UniProtKB/TrEMBL annotation:
This is ABC transporter ATP-binding protein. One of its GO terms (biological process) is carbohydrate transport. It comes from Elstera litoralis. One of its GO terms (molecular function) is ATP binding. Keywords: ATP-binding, Nucleotide-binding, Transport. It comes from the Bacteria. Belongs to the ABC transporter superfamily.
């Protein structure tokens, strides 16, 4: 396979007329890294990927792949291969021909083309399908062919633009595993765009969470999940979403809920010091202590809905101050709507956000 390359983006600006999509964006991707660009529709993630690919001109800045400045190079000269959301296969060509066509146009020797196609087909479990046409394949098989077509290029960098979003849930899960295995075997640099947080958390070495053309947080999946830098990241990553509870941080080291109820903050990992005032307490459903584990001074939540999920159960409650609360319960939850449920929030699992800025405290 091709030599793995790093990618350096320096002060990238992209504008569509008077609209600024990306402004002074900097990002360095290490050789062999799997980086996921994650964010909602319109956040700029696909725009950035297309700029790296050379499919979109940038207004300012530089793009370096490996040791070369490729800012104004044609896509074919950048040492990249790309997999799109749509399979974009030639319907009249066999799988073999779809995978080899680009190499034939590039003038590679027939023996080398055959070897590259055979290796890629073996990696992606396509060997028995090489003589079929796209119409004879399932959606998952077609997307594997599209990945194989990129793979035979033996590029330094592979770009994926939401490649699984057209597939059903089971196929997405299967192909996610395929892509993870592929990265482990190739050790290639991969940049992957998605709005699906599960894909991001399972595939990435690092995740760049984007909103409004700005990278909000660039970190490992676990860091993004456990210590989101602001309320946007906290809300976007995680399913079901993080609970957000309003209140105030008091000088005595407690979080005071509206009306009654307090939460001790000893053990919380602060980013700022000496903050007091209006704040939001964030906690993920699986980190809430309940029942006997809630300790001697719990809040009493009122159960509103019990949702069995198989491996566990989601319990939707409401706190005395009216705030909604979702928690993960063991699979066999002997609870019903109307039941009181003691709950507590361990300080080391909390995220606290400044109400004024949304930033993590």
């Amino acid at each position: 396979m091709g030599a793995t390359a790093n990618v350096d983006l320096k002060d990238i600006c992209i504008r569509f007329g008077s609209i600024r999509v990306l402004e002074n964006l900097n990002l360095t991707i290490a050789p062999g890294e799997f980086l996921v660009l994650l964010g909602p529709s319109g956040c700029g993630k696909s725009t950035l990927l297309n700029a790296i690919a050379g499919l979109l001109d940038i207004a300012e800045g530089e793009i370096h792949i490996g040791a070369r400045n490729v800012t104004w190079d044609e896509p074919k000269d950048r040492g990249i291969a790309m997999v799109f959301q749509s399979y974009a296969l030639y319907p009249r060509m066999s799988v073999r021909k779809n995978m080899s066509f680009g190499l034939e146009v590039a003038g590679l020797p027939k023996a080398e083309i055959a070897e590259r196609v055979a290796v890629a087909a073996q990696m992606l479990r396509l060997t028995e399908l090489l003589d079929r046409r796209p119409a004879e394949l399932s959606g998952g098989q077609r997307q594997r062919v599209a990945i194989g077509r990129a793979l035979v290029r033996q590029a330094g960098v592979y770009l994926f633009d939401e490649p699984l979003s057209n597939l059903d849930a089971q196929l997405r899960a299967e192909l996610r595993v395929e892509i993870k295995r592929l990265h482990a075997r190739l050790g290639a640099t991969m940049i992957y765009v998605t709005h699906d947080q599960i894909e991001a958390l399972t595939l990435a070495d690092r995740i760049a969470v984007m909103q409004g053309g700005v990278i909000q947080q660039l970190d490992t999946p676990m860091k993004v999940y456990r210590e989101p830098v602001n309320r946007f990241v906290a809300a976007f990553v995680g399913s079901p979403a993080m609970n957000f509870l309003p209140g105030r941080i008091e000088r005595d080291g407690f979080f005071q809920f509206p009306e009654d109820g307090r939460c001790a903050l000893e053990g919380y990992r602060w980013r700022t010091s000496d903050f007091t005032g209006a704040a939001t307490l964030g906690i993920r459903p699986e980190h809430i202590l309940y029942g006997a584990d809630a300790g001697p001074a719990p809040l009493i939540a009122n159960v509103e809905l019990v949702e069995p999920m198989g491996a566990d159960t989601l319990v939707w409650c409401r706190l005395p101050n009216g705030a909604p609360l979702a928690l993960r319960h063991a699979a066999e939850a002997a609870l019903k709507p109307g039941d009181p449920l003691p709950v507590a929030f361990p300080a080391d699992a909390l995220s606290l956000f400044d109400d004024a800025t949304g930033a993590r405290l």
